[in-house]
Structure formats: C-alpha cells, structure tokens
C-alpha cells in the first residue's frame, strides 16, 4: 500500500503502482479539507442559489432546478445514464491507475465529496474490486464521462467489476469483498465522472511504455552500431554539448558507456575506409535524444494533470462554488500526441538500423539477411519486413488527435480535446515499437556474433546473454514468430535494459 499526497505525487510513484499493481491510499492529512468542502456542498444543495450540478441538471439541462429531496436520484441517474462506454474493457492495471488518479483529484479538497467516497475507492483498490471500464466513449471534454461513469456505477452497486478473476455485477463484487455501495450525495456523481483521469491514466501508461522502449532503443542501437562496425566518433561529448539539447547529450553519453571496451570497435578504429555511417547509426543521439526530450516534456504535463483537480464546479478556498473548465483534457491530448510522435520516430530510425544490418550492400561484411547460408535460408528477411509494416502503422497512428474537435451535447460542449483516443492509441503504438526493438535485438546480436572472435563490450555481452536465454541464434531457417514474441517480451519487461545496466532518467 502506497500513501500518496495529492499535489505532490510523482511519476515514479505512479509507475510503481502501475507496474506492481499495488494499492494506494491518501495521506490522512487530506481529511480536513475533504470534509470542509463536502460541508460547503451540503449547505449549497439546500440553498436558494442555483449551483450547477448541485441543485440543477447537467450540461444543456443546467437551467432545470432540482429540489433537495431529489438530490440522490439526480446523482444516481447521472451515473447510470452516462454508462455508455463501448469496446474492449480497459486493462485492470490501467483501471486501477485511473482510480488512483481520481483519489488524488478528490483528495485536494475542492470537489465537495464526503469522506465515504474516498474510503470506498481506497477499499476497492485494497481489496481488488476493479470496475469493468470500456475503452471507448470519451471525447475528453466534460471529463471522461462514460468511462468514469462505469467506475462510479460499481460504487453505487451497479455496473460490473472484476473480483478474484471473475466478472461480476458491481453489487456482488462489492459484497464479496466486504464493501458496501454508497448513496451519492449532492454533486458526488458529478465529481466522480467529471475529470480527465481515464485519459490521463492511458497517457501515463503510454509514457511508461514509451520510456521503456526508448531506453531499450539506446541499447539495441548500440548493439547495431557494433554489429555493422559503425563509428563511435559521433557520440563524442563535445559534439553534443555544442548543440546543447539535454536528451541528445544523455543518449550520446549512454551509448559511449555501452560501447566502451568493445573489441569490435577497437578493431577498426584506425584505417576504416568509411568516412561517415548512415544517419540511422550516426544520428542516433540526435533522433533518440529529441524523442527523450519530448517524452520528458509530456511527463511533466501528465504528472501536473495527475495531481490536478479536474471536476466541476469547484469549492474554492474562500468557500465559493464556481463553475470552470478544468475537465477539458487539452493538456493530456497534446501530451498524448507528443508521446505518439516520439514513439513513431524511435521506431522509424530503429527500423532503418534493422534494414541496414540485413542488407549485404550496407552491412560491412555481414551475410545477407544475417543467415550463415543465404539462398538456402532466408534468415531474417521477413522479420525486417514485419518491422517495416509496424513502423508504417505507427506513422499513421502518430497523426495528431488533439486537432480533431467535434461539438457534442447539443453544442454545449462545442470544443473537445479527443484526449481519450489520443491516449488509447499509445497502447498499440508502444506494442508495435517493442516488437521492432525486439527484432533489432535479434538482428544486432546475430550480427555481433558474426564478428567472432572479436567481442563486443561487457554491457552488450550481458544483453546478448539475456537474449540468448530465450532466443537462440538463427542458423537454419525455423518458425520465427515465437522468437519475435519472446524478444518483444524482453523489451516490455525491461530485461535487456536491466542486463545492460542502463539508467536514463525520465
């Protein structure tokens, strides 16, 4: 169980929660602010002034007044009517991250929910009651309304949830876990479904996976450099400090460390006839480093959003209850688009390194398609073609989603962010990229082994050993699909990065 402080939670904490599937709870010091704002909402609900979502209808129906006796019905109807998500269920780990983000938002004490709401979300996380949340249905504007409604539905004993490996009704899942549903008070349903937590959770998962791929790309890129007997001169520190971009400097330093002590490199340091390597080798720090800078920038946006209050209306510090627009997910949409660009470019340059290694005209003495008996065997010919297909798909998917606004809700919500599907596509893109990098690992290890008796550096030797524990060298042609899947898993599970001892900060 990890205790979180709203406004101070870090990317590392959220990544740990997601990767370990741990539970979270709020720091007890949040209780006073939560109770104060809840009291202010309770008073307003019985007052004469019209306050959106407290004693009025929602969206285009905001002008309709709701009497106090109908408050609970209003909030329950809101949740049930908004459960319009479609598509495959969100991964349970991602749903739990979304719930944690909702805790952080409510924990700032500006949403007006009672402590019972906080306690139930914490209890569901601790006892592993995970709502079934469809992936599609949000336009990322008045909050992620449909997905968050499916979460809230379980809290009122409706909807569906996973518990102990079974898909159950929300009421049954809560009962089996020893939890009771809540009756929502004034504004509480609105507080639960207004907000960007679905989009932000998906974008964060995309960021975590993208950073894993980027670190792996530094490793596989160094291996490819050695496999084709590429020059390490372009990684010299002064080249990169003269330009000044932090990501570029960091990637060049990491590559220098990874290639230090390689016998392959030393064998052609003097007398190499090539003046320059192709860009996919020579410009790795510039391209991968630019992607690193972009991911870092997106990470700052997303951790700010993860700690933000994003529902509406808000209870401000002077006690006033004011409608605003923090539920609009434009920052998340932009961050998702930035991550998508970085993922596409990491894959694009990695794919060119694979193409370089399998091409005997360019690979500086490696056999065609990295097979010891070309002609009789096709080796890694079609593995390279697969990476080209995945690279191309990612290029299409990298087109921006944030510019695709469309009016909804009878033109009340007339500009929307499209953050949800901008973030959702990152799952497919990072899976594609991890496969590209897995194939690069196979190809570069094969290429390095063709350089025997010369050996690569100690860190890259450890990477090859980690790969060979799961994927044998390619001799005679064999059924390759399982090997590609194993290599992809080694990328996603950070095995290759760990073997290299590589540390590059987010």
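^ structure tokens above, recovered residues below v
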């Amino acid at each position: 169980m990890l205790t979180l402080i709203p406004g101070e939670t870090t990317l590392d904490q959220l990544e740990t929660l997601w990767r370990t599937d741990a539970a979270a709870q709020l720091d007890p010091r949040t209780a006073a602010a939560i109770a104060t704002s809840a009291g202010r909402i309770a008073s307003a609900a019985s007052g004469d002034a019209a306050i959106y979502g407290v004693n009025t209808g929602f969206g285009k129906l905001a002008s309709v007044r709701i009497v106090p006796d109908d408050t609970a019905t209003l909030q329950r109807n809101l949740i049930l009517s908004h459960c319009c998500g479609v598509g495959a269920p969100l991964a349970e780990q991602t749903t739990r991250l979304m719930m944690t983000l909702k805790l952080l938002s409510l924990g700032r004490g500006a949403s007006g929910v009672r402590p019972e709401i906080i306690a139930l979300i914490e209890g569901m996380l601790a006892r592993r009651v995970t709502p079934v949340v469809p992936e599609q249905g949000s336009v990322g504007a008045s909050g992620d309304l449909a997905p968050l409604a499916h979460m809230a539905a379980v809290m009122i004993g409706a909807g569906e949830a996973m518990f102990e490996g079974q898909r159950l009704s929300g009421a049954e899942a809560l009962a089996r876990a020893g939890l009771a549903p809540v009756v929502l008070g004034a504004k509480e349903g609105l507080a639960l479904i207004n907000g960007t937590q679905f989009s932000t959770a998906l974008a964060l998962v995309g960021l975590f996976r993208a950073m894993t791929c980027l670190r792996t790309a530094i490793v596989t890129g160094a291996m490819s450099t050695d496999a084709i007997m590429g020059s390490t001169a372009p990684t010299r520190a002064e080249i990169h400090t003269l330009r000044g971009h932090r990501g570029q400097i960091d990637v060049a330093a990491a590559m220098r460390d990874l290639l230090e002590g390689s016998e392959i490199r030393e064998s052609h340091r003097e007398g190499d006839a090539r003046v320059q390597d192709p860009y996919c080798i020579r410009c790795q720090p510039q391209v991968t480093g630019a992607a690193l800078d972009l991911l870092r920038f997106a990470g700052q946006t997303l951790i700010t959003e993860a700690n933000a209050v994003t529902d509406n209306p808000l209870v401000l510090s002077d006690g006033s209850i004011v409608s605003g627009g923090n539920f609009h997910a434009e920052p998340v949409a932009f961050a998702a688009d930035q991550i998508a660009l970085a993922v596409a470019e990491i894959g694009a340059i990695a794919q060119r390194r694979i193409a370089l290694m399998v091409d005997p005209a360019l690979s500086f003495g490696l056999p065609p398609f990295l097979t010891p008996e070309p002609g009789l065997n096709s080796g890694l010919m079609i593995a390279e073609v697969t990476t080209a297909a995945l690279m191309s798909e990612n290029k299409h998917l990298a087109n921006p989603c944030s510019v695709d606004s469309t009016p909804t809700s009878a033109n009340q919500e007339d500009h929307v962010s499209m953050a949800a599907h901008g973030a959702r596509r990152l799952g497919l893109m990072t899976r594609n990229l991890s496969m590209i990098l897995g194939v690069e690992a196979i190809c570069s290890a094969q290429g390095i082994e063709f350089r025997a008796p010369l050996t690569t550096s100690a860190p890259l030797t450890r990477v090859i050993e980690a790969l060979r524990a799961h994927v044998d060298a390619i001799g005679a042609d064999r059924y390759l699909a399982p090997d590609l899947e194993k290599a992809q898993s080694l990328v996603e599970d950070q095995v290759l990065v760990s073997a290299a001892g590589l540390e590059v900060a987010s």
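The mean pLDDT is 94.
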